[in-house]
Amino acid sequence: TQPAQEQLVYAGTGTVSDEDRASLATDLQGIRDQLMNLANSTDGNGRYIFAGYKTEAAPFDQATGGYHGGEKSVTQQVDSARTMVIGHTGAQIFNSITSNAVPEPDGSDSEKNLFVMLDTAIAALKTPVEGNDVEKEKAAAAIDKTNRGLKNSLNNVLTVRAELGTQLSELSTLDSLGSDRALGQKLQMSNLVDVDWNSVISSYVMQQAALQASYKTFTDMQGMSLFQLNR
To answer: In this protein, which residues make up the domain named Flagellin N-terminal (predicted)?
Structure first.
């Protein structure tokens, strides 16, 4: 989102010609397309990453930017008493702002949908304003609103990213604890009698498998484009 902000800052200087504004609109459209591709990206199994539990269909409408994915985040139990979100919905990332978002000067509701923000700015940049003060004022207001919206959107993405980083760190700790528990379980097992060994071993293996799967998920997500959104 930062490249988009940079373009809008330039566009908002008031000294840009209609021709240059049209060029900026084209650049901004390219940024929107990149973000849309990210929002509708899939994993190695063809499942949509930001669609919640509705992984079979693209969560965002290419034309309108509307979200049609699942409303619930994907969660997974990583320990006997701990469940984590391992997949945020597209609405939580691309269609949300934080509680400390920059407010609108006139008190109106802040735009939350990243794609609607960009579409508003693109339309404003495509509108000729030279020699027309009314249109120039409207375009400037639209660009300013989008700039505020992009700041809010970026702040929201950084919040989600920080949450993922914290959870990844916690998973690393749980993984270490799992190794210690394994040793403790082996010592306990040597002293037990009348134990259903199949049940004990199966339970342990399932816990470790769930933990390793969750750890891999978060490790993979570190390399995803979501972590590059603010660059």
So the answer is: 2-55
